[in-house]
């Protein structure tokens, strides 16, 4: 169906069409406060959020995240403490870290001390005891107060005052781990030795230390990758900033060109997107072809498994084949959509041209996303800091650790009184070690409630900031549309006026809409948490039900976002409550469902192609630069562990920057679209009821105002 049909007959199912109102000249200025109860509730919730933050900051201790802790829960290397000059954590018997208990308790069942440096040579306690020259060196890895002259070696071992042996170690993530290496043939060694005297008359193989080293820190591999990524950021951060600045400049140029050359730019954008994706397909095909016959290139991704060095995946053909297939599918989908929607693209271009004029007359709207970004950054920072303090506000909890079966295993204990109890007698080798942080006070009992409240308020505040931006932009662009003589009738400072109206009258409506969306998002987070917990379960019905719920709530979130967006536009124009505005917007869209399907979605698709083009241009340039493919700047490019780290950062950052600029366009298009539908229902083009839309839209819709028609005649 074409878009030149007459106004549809009002359907009582979706309410009555808007009637002509000679006094309506755009966003209503004489309005009252809406959804006052939600406004009060939101203010109380914010005050409660501040109270939770203050409570968390008074109880929390972020040092627990930064510094490793010894067996007494003391921080290694913390400034202003007796352990300030002992930044490294040393394990008495790292072989015990290979126990499954490590994975359950995230703590090795062995004594841990803070030391100045890691041991650099293999030595047993017996050897050190017999060699007085080595005793001082050995004592730095023992508990305080050890006197070799007053105690025998067996007594020292019995009381757990010293480790039975030392081995060559290296600091990693502030922990002393065996200096493992691999010789030719895959033989694991520590300091060129394959086996060691354990100080108790036995031998220990170097391979035993390998498993213990891996399990001594459950996330050791992840931290290793994180360290490499951090190193890449330290040497490439300024190039990343340059890439993001380039993305911002390209986005600004694109927006400015849209203002004057919207039609040409849209077609250029369409062609460029097709060419960029096409080049991606060509590049993947060439890489796939070049790897033919290379040793190891035919290994599958499944056989390769998870590797910390992600560049390995680029050395196998299957990776490039997968990239090529994905890009080919995207290319075909884009081309098919353009073919079937070719007639609708012209109408969408006209709407984008109108949006370009609106943005041109309200240029301050381009900089409003900076305010939204700053507010969102503030919300995220407050949430993150509060989360860290909440997670570190527990007290030290000590438990009994023992490698053998014992009735007291993992029971809480007091390290000061442990030696006076009968636990050590009933459980040989048992130790009272720091296990984790917890507590028995009311604060600690309800800590999970505070953490949930922190997450919920984060969603609510973030959605409120987004809603505030949408209402502000909608009010400004509605002022443009309903100005009959543009730009003379456009009010001064439309962005500031709209922002003032939103905060003064509609804080409650914004809080109401964002509250509904936040509830759905929190439910989705809980469903994702349950999904992670049930991954190991074999109940297929439970997994199926959970998948259905996740799908339903995902769809519900998308629908609520769509409804909220249009409701906020109606709030900005008419100043009514959220529910009334949501109903009016929904009925207006349903009365014009054909136009919604044709215009709104095609326009969104074209704007998405614009973002895709900017990301593609910046992404390809960053790929050639950071991978050293450009010979002219090969020496300038930084040396990286993973060259995809800055590339991915630039790509994601470019998309966010492009999205920030194009979100203004998207909000402008949505606002003008609703105003356009209202215009068609309110007016008929006569001298008494002229259309407010531009001449281009009138021509495309085959409509005209009588005054303009007479002028043409």
Q: How is the quaternary structure best described?
A: single chain
The main sheet orders its strands as 1-2
Tally of contiguous helical segments:
23
| Low-confidence regions | 1-11, 99-106, 182-192, 212-220, 709-713
Content of β-strand = 5-15%
Q: Write down the overall mean pLDDT.
A: 76
Structural class call reads mainly alpha
Number of domains: 2
Q: Biggest sheet, in brief? A: 2 strands, antiparallel
Q: Which outline best applies?
A: elongated
Number of strands: 12
| Percent range of helical residues | 55-70%
Radius of gyration, whole Å: 33 Å
Q: Span from first to last CA?
A: 30 Å
Topology:
Blueprint: H1 36-59, H2 63-66, E1 88-91, H3 101-105, E2 112-115, E3 123-124, H4 125-130, H5 132-139, H6 153-158, E4 165-166, E5 169-172, E6 175-178, E7 180-182, E8 188-190, E9 195-197, E10 203-205, H7 206-216, H8 220-290, H9 301-304, H10 317-340, H11 342-361, H12 368-391, E11 395-401, H13 423-426, E12 431-438, H14 442-445, H15 447-481, H16 494-505, H17 507-533, H18 540-574, H19 578-591, H20 593-626, H21 644-682, H22 695-700, H23 706-712
Antiparallel strand pairs: 1-2, 3-4, 5-6, 7-8, 9-10, 11-12
